[in-house]
Amino acid sequence: MESSTARDIADVVIRVEGLSKDYTMGSEVVRALRGVDLTIRRNEYVAVMGPSGSGKSTFMNLIGCLDVPSGGQYWLNGQPVAGMTENALARIRNRELGFVFQSFNLLPRASALDNVALPLVYARVPKKVRHERAAAMLEKVGLGARKDHRPNELSGGQRQRVAIARALVTQPALLLADEPTGALDSRTGEEIMALFGELHAQGQTLMLVTHESDIAAYARRVLFLKDGVIERDELKRN
């Protein structure tokens, strides 16, 4: 019989202890992140807020394995990430993490289907399988009929849906979204946030970075960063 401790460990997607990041600017050392401790469990929906210079972008980059910490420990799905080689980090990014950015970052000459399938190319998934999975993800985000369209034939909201489908196609442990509605009008932004809510209801673990309180309000838990530390950690009550 599985122990409660084993279940608790299996339920943790992100755990960081004493996570820090320093940057050297000339003769000055800037402490962007100062010993952050945090646990995020499976199917949590977390928003990260903070003013410019608070450390939220640095934190996102570290969690996304886009940068390496100066100190502390980071476990993703039980794997110790700090100290991994760049090749190992690239594999983690491809297999365990999905990314959604403000600017969509789609290949302009590729169809929606091929854009969504791209992470599976890097993972060396056979072409037939990756196209089937990409088509299923486009259906999931409501764009099944647009799979052959290029980005310039899609609206801003549709392009962001393609980006979300691409982030989901590898079935990541964590979906990371950095200002996902920043390039969208308010109505389209609400539609994208409703889609995130549906994904959360289906079991997806999400973390989004935003400076907008109305966007953060969609999350179930909100972290407030200031001067490189978590100043507040608020959990919504039903």
TrEMBL record:
One GO cellular component term noted in the UniProt record for this chain: plasma membrane
GO molecular function annotations of the record: ATP binding; ATP hydrolysis activity; transmembrane transporter activity
Keywords of this entry: ATP-binding, Nucleotide-binding, Transport
Pfam families, sorted: ABC_tran (PF00005)
Alphabetized InterPro entries for the sequence: AAA+_ATPase, ABC_transporter-like_ATP-bd, ABC_transporter-like_CS, ABC_transpr_LolD-like, MacB-like_ATP-bd, P-loop_NTPase
Signal sequence range: none
Domain ABC transporter as annotated: residue spans: 14-235
Classification via CDD domains: ABC_MJ0796_LolCDE_FtsE
SMART domains the record matches: AAA
Protein family according to the UniProt entry: Belongs to the ABC transporter superfamily. Macrolide exporter (TC 3.A.1.122) family.
Identification of the protein by name: ABC transporter ATP-binding protein
Source organism of this protein record: Myxococcus llanfairpwllgwyngyllgogerychwyrndrobwllllantysiliogogogochensis
Taxon lineage: Bacteria, Pseudomonadati, Myxococcota, Myxococcia, Myxococcales
